[in-house]
Amino acid sequence: MKRPLRWLASLLHLRRQARFVAWLLPNRFWYRAALAMCRLQGVLNGALGGNRVLTEAVMLDHWLWELTSIGPFPIPWTVTGTEVIESADPQIGTVYCWIHEPLTEFPLRTYLEQGYREPMVVADRGRIIGVDQLMVAGLAKCVTAIPANRYALGRAQRSLREGVPVVCLADAQLGGTLYPLVLQLAGRVGARVVFQWAKRRPDGTIEVTFMNAPRPYCETAEAVHENLAFLRAAQQSALAALGLPDQKAT
Fold it and tell me: CA dihedral in degrees (133, 135, 140, 142; nearest 10)?
């Protein structure tokens, strides 16, 4: 019972911590301060018998969210695969897809800072601000978002047909069931599927990667299956890196 209470206490105090950091330091130091705090929180939770790696990764997402709500700040990042974005068909939007894992929203910053067409994001309802806005880590600008509900596929289809890129996740939670619906939608409208993800280096720099899905046009059920298999392997890797059991493997 003690560990959940400590975890809840850290979340309840996070907003206060973030505002103190923002008051104390110029924004160019916010990201490094957040990293230091997350590492400290990970070490402390590990010493109490918790999962150090998971704590550090999850808390960084929370820190980025809280600091972004205060104001913009620089975050060091690199990107691989921009040619994949640049080869997009202007008539049919691209589906940018991945799984729930730490930093899963960070590639959005790459779109905006490099001037690519702004996507529409299918997001968890709790991440959406107001009617249809989603914060982008470290930026003042938000992107348009819709909640991941039963109407999302229809709205995503309309956006794709209008040439608007759509960003979505293939699972409902970390390590959750993978759903083929968005891949099947891409196949129906002729949209290309691009997988995107972000990883943090030991020095704090965030590496963003874009790559065409193994079968980017999801033209058959077999193609959808191959793409889901790739996502499943990525999901297993993410769980292992976070020190979490893979429930589907048991």
Answer: -30
